[in-house]
Design brief:
The complex is a heterodimer of chains A (about 1000) and B (about 425). By secondary structure, chain A is of the alpha+beta class. Chain A is built from 34 helices and 30 strands. In chain A, helix 20 runs parallel beside helix 22. By secondary structure, chain B is mostly beta strands. The chains are: A alpha+beta (about 1000), B mainly beta (about 425).
Amino acid sequence: MASQAAVDKHRVTAVLVSHNGAVWLPEVVAALTSQTRPIDLITAVDTGSQDSSTKLLKSARIPFISADVETGFGQAISLAVNKLPKSVDHEWIWLIHDDCAPAPTALAELLAAIDDRPQVVMVGPKLLGWHDRTHLLEAGVSIAGNGARWTGLEPLEYDQGQHDGNHDVLAVSTAGALIRRDVFEELGGLDPNLTLFRDDVDFGWRARAAGHSVMVATGAVAFHAQASANERRTVEVDGAFLHRPLLLDRRNAAFVLLSNSSWWILPWLVIQLLGTAIARAIGYLIAKLPGYAADEILAVGSLVVRPGLIIAARKVRKKQRFVSARVIAEFIPPRWSQIRLASEGVVDAIRAKLFPENNQVSTTSVLDANEDEDLLTPVNTNHWFGIFKRPEVIGFILISLISLLNSRNRFGALVGGALPISPAGATDLWRTYFESWHQVGMGSTVATPTWVAITATASLFFLGKVQFLITTFFLVAPVLMMFTASKLLKRLTENTWISIPAALLYAVSPVAIAAVSTGHIATVLFMVLAPVVALLLSDVEKIESFTWRKIAGVSLLLAVLYGFSLMIFVIGLAAGLISTLSDYEKHAQEANAPLYSLRLQKRAALIFVPFVMNVPYSLETIKNPTRLLVEPGLLISGGGPIHALLGNPGGANSLPIWLVSPILLALIVSLFSSTHARRIAEYGVGALVIAVVISALSISTHGNEASSKVWSGPVLVLVTLAAVAAGTVLLDRLRETLVLSHIHYRHILSALLLFTTFAYSVLAIGWSVTKGADSLVQANRATVMPAFLSVEKDVKILVLREVGSENEKKIQYYLSRGKDISLGEPDVAPAQTVAIADAARGLIDGSGVTSSSTLSDFGVKYLYVKAPFKREIIRSIDGLGGFSRTSATSLGVVWKVTAPASRLMFVGADGVRKELEAGEVGARTYVPSAGTLILTETYNRSWQVLENGYRLDRNKNEQGLPTFTVTEAGEISLIHDGTIRRAWLSLQLIFFVIVLVMALPAGRRKSEISEKELA
Amino acid sequence: MNFSRPLRFIAFVAGAITIASALNVAVSKKSYSENYPAVVCPPTLPGLSSQISLSSKKTQFQRLQNRSAKTDSVKVLRLPVMKDSLLFDAQGSTPVVWQSKTGNWAGGAICSGPASSQWFVGASADITTKGRLIIVNSGLSDAVVDVNVFTENGKQPLRTLNVSSKNYLVIPVDSLAPGDKTLTVNVVPRSGRINSFMIDEQGKGLRALGGDLVNPTTSPSRTVVIPAIPNQGKKPGQGAAPAHVLRVLTPGDVDASVTVELLSADGVFIPVGLNSRSISAGLVTEFTFSPKISSSAFAVKITSTEPVVAAVESSVAIGGGKDFTWSTAAPELSEFTMAVTGLTPLIVFAGSEINVAVEVTLVNGKSIRKAIKGTDVATWRVPAAARSFTITKVGKQTYAGALVSSVNGYGYFPIAPGSVLTRVEIPDSNIRILNP
């Protein structure tokens, strides 16, 4: 190359480092040779290329040094520099990567930028993408506090010159960086610890700490393929453990920060690096990139195990430093800008998912536009209120009004029907979910169902106010039902005048009205989500085509529904069995074993994965199968098979039976249809069969001793949805068919169906907004338990109450813990103890002379008869003895059991029973002497009493209560060991995370991303 | 079109309904426990003597103040009571207590289970009277009782009394409203197993005018029937026939208009001045009437615009002395058994159409049947050897009372069940009751 001393005062030596870069090298060499300001000297270093790189260098007549394959970039540069002639004034080294092609004017622009800036020792070009040459890669580079490489640019930012100009920066990429040779040598070149990646930032930082300047000159442009970072080639440098570029990048980032930063911010940096590594590792795990996740952790770990490296590096830097390391503070990006960029990225990702870009390119040119067309097009005379003529608007306004009118007594904390009072905060629900012992009745260890955790999580969107969540949910549920149903029905018809009224009909169906007014939260939720499930499983008959990710996603949704009611599992199991039998028949004909095996696997996954995600509650149903048929909350009786046959769950507050819905008629008519309606109707009839059968069953669970008819709401949701969907398909093309054909049975059936539907709609809406508003679920009802009984902590009170209508009164009782039951408690309520049942019976029929002592044995301190109540029975209790009246108010009568009664009793050697203080579950208290402790809770092996660090012997007394033998006086600790519950919850969490990760979109390794996408 | 598949689905539904019908067994909504609560008889106060008629020697009894649950059998059919109030496990047979003061007065009352409210229309609080209100607490817990007193001067201040468990209180009636002449007392237990009894003894100076046990009624009513009022008629040498005094109270806030109908073997009529008589709310009002009828007993039916309580005081002569009875309202007659050993009462039935079948069990164990039919009023004397009678059949709107005369005096008690089968529903355990 000819010297350019005549052109300017600078001498430029280009150092090209190549490693398996044959793909890019020809263009790079061409770019170097075509510089408008010729390079004074070009030398190259090849680090063990296996491809044709060396051949290309030879053919280009570029002298090169062959180095070991593990030679780092910095070492390669140093090798080349060391071979150069002695340094002269204004001598510059131009670092060139084998995947970086500078524009012809790049060198000229770089030199021009530094001509009148003697303090600048490192200058770099604007880096653009190799493939998309408008993609701005870098215009200077920095490092964030968490080690991220910071360019200040948005992802895939388009270069419009918005960052142009000569700017001071912390560093520039080594790709195309021009470095003054004397300073390069003075600083010891690029740090040999940084074999690849972040050596540029480190050098820039050191140069600045040594009192020099670094700048980017965007007039100079280079096109960079970033082959190593984008995993276009294997990283084989020394220290690149397992040849993983991300690991090396993250390790080097941490090295740069820890080597160059001031010592006093090192602890904070370490925390940041660790925290970021963990967070990013979790992110990569969720994106199913465990290799990247491991890179993040290993990167930090590899430095932690070798602190000597950092110490040595800091010593070197200390010697070179002329100014404080904080001189670079202005180039470190503030944290808010990192957060802003990250949040913008998340928002963009969500936006892209929700509103995908329309990639269809218009083929119409603006030149084709007929400008006179405006004159020919009639003026749009639509008024703004024309929007109210759209069926969607009319329908949703109508359902909103219906819901508002129907909910007029439900503005506030809801309670009644199946719905107990909601606790004030989500923490109470979480406690109910996590605790191993529930203070309900005589206590229970029943696993809390998952819906409690789901509700607690959902309440976070309502500032943790569970009551607000429940009230809002019941208020907007009909609108949501209509919305999701309309989404489904629009897939079946394009005619919104059919789909919207059908969706409205779904939202005012008998099961919807009954579920809302009786507080059946699972049925309401299923009404909302069933159309979504139907949409997701619309092609379930080709389940083999479902991806496992889709199976996991649907399983997550089904797990939520199972969490609310395992009746949906029963439905799924029944459907799965029928489908499998059908497959078995088909398989006998087709003999396609792999296909049917795959179908079976995927179907089983859909049914059982959600079941497993609801352990331990779901597993407990094996012991208590009645729980498969219940909903959250209190057991409310359904109406039986005849109601179910008509699509009405029946029971209190449901639509009267004379208000017949068109559900059954629609299904039967659709069965005879030749359209797709027939297939839908078959599903509906299948569900109807299940509904009819289970509605005939009577069960007793959830703290209700008496048998109650099963509420078949969840199954009827499917029946209703199928009827509405089948009816929609039926009506979609019915008009044309009827117009074209002579009058026959179809006309009659259609007229009958339409008339029934219209009559039902009008009557049901009328009933809903009038009588229906006076529902079981109401807002702000007075509590059952008087406030003065809630003062004593965890006191057991036997409550007697007359319930039922005026003509059908019934006396019922239960043990209260001083307050009304709240959400989640009925689900874990135990069956009543026989002795307490006998005592309660004795109170009522006047034979209970021993009731008082029985109640005392079980720690029941008070007897409360809620008004109104039969006065004869009150007098009978007065006469029984063992009770002393403490109050008689308009709320009811309270007696105190005269014998000692508390949660924790102590019987000394003298046989005298003493009450001991006890907390709500665990307790620390003092035992006066040797004797026996009686815990008046249901016996459970997890109850433990510790004294002096030793467990006391546990036994069961004749009442079935746990007792503990105390050997000496002293302080004791009562605990309920929740290890088993915690283990189950951990298992549930693991299942949840696995399915969630499987359901989330998978990330791609950079090596899997196409060049085009990387641009 | 192939209809076989749709029809198969419809067949599935039909099958499901069949299965559901088989599964849909009737769920028993309620179950009951039935028993007869122990009945309480009044204590025998000093100077008095008591006998309780029982239908069986095996009837179990217990003294009120006995704290243990142990009971003994009575071993007799007529049990003399020295002092204590007694509790009987009467098992559906209502015992009757007969109290008397030798040569002075006698009266009868039924022993009954605890009551939620008792109205005593009778007695006086002026200085010549010696009435007593007895409140018995047969329960094992202390009781609180409200005593409302009404007189001719209106409602008196409420008195609230504590009665110890297994004990009784005796309250002089003249202390309830000192100086007032016409009393009506309402005893309402707030808590406890309470029965009340009232004794009315009257005199004039040192001369005793007789006495009686005033039987209670449970609640005011718009129609009150007092089925048995003794009518001895005018005796030779007597200036006028003994007058009857009707005492009425409307305890509500609204004045009532009452009409008194007299039912007797001589016919049904409204005594002069007793048609649509207005009575002031809260004031005890008395009307005196002397019916000119030949029958020895009659009944009155009071119809009112407001709920009232009422009783009739009748003077009677026994031997050479005088006595009086308080005939009180009786409930509509129902099927039950009453023990009447040693009483031979005259049962007076009142009703527009009387059709009552009675089975009498004699002391020797044999039983005889008797049908009583009539209109307005019918009487039947229980055989002397009877230990009990059972109303086996009775028509609607029939009332009955018993009149008993003895050497010491004349008494009345209503024919009403005291030992009543109590049917109590067995409660269910349901956590739902802890939800508003």
